[in-house]
């Protein structure tokens, strides 16, 4: 490849805003000549390089915008510790069929059993697949809606959120809701019913949601909408964060501390 050709190609790549293809061109051109690629094959691989780079960059941007508490993947999930969920079920969820079907994923179980890990990993998968995602705890979602209501923008905010394909509501049940908070959370769930997906995690079984929301009827109505089209996973066992720690251990000689 002559310097004149290189300069002209560099100019064209800049005009097309295709830096990944520009970087890959020399090596791909050498390989194409060595392996006797057709023009069509060479063009396909060169363009695919640029598209993949853009998808990756866009995915990273969506991951940042989602505001996940940490970066988690399904591949990192320890199924040898958490045996109450089947790996095949989680892998199926990782294919994101639930997202395209506008259905929900509900993760129930004690603290430390992997609910947030799974929710985050599925959210990151969705981001990398080109979908917008927003992550927040239940109390953070309520605070956001309270502020929108205070500014007279509640309906507009709910409408904006309805265009986000996946909302993740973490930690339902850690803090009970007052009546206003319960109504706002119901509005969020109701507004997305059969329109867009949610992933919800909770340390409480559905039977205790009446206590969380302060109203059995409101809780029942919310649960009804959440589970109508959903995959429900009940995680069991001890906290992964406390594995190997003997929290009930006692001093060898307690009388010495008296």
Essential attributes:
single chain; 258 residues; alpha/beta; 11 helices; disordered C terminus
Strand and helix map with partners:
Elements: H1 3-16, H2 19-35, H3 39-66, H4 87-93, H5 97-100, E1 104-108, H6 115-128, E2 133-137, H7 138-150, H8 154-162, E3 166-172, H9 179-192, E4 197-202, H10 209-213, H11 216-228, E5 230-234
Parallel strand pairs: 1-4, 1-5, 2-3, 3-4
Task: Describe the structure concisely.
With 258 residues, the chain is α/β, with parallel strands linked by helices.
Describe the structure.
- With 258 residues, the protein is an alpha/beta fold.
- Helix content is 53%, strand content 11%.
- It has helices at 3-16, 19-35, 39-66, 87-93, 97-100, 115-128, 138-150, 154-162, 179-192, 209-213, 216-228, and strands at residues 104-108, 133-137, 166-172, 197-202, 230-234.
- It has a five-stranded parallel sheet with strand order 2-3-4-1-5, with helices on both faces.
- The protein is elongated.
Class computed from helices, strands and strand pairing: alpha/beta
Strand order, largest beta sheet: 2-3-4-1-5
Which bin fits the share of residues in helices? 40-55%
Number of helices: 11
Number of strands: 5
Principal-axes geometry comes out as elongated
Report the portion of residues in β strands.
Answer: 5-15%
Largest sheet: 5 strands, parallel
First and last CA, distance:
85 Å
Low-confidence stretches: 249-258
Would you tell me the overall average pLDDT? 88
| Elements, N to C (H/E) | HHHHHEHEHHEHEHHE
Radius of gyration: 25 Å
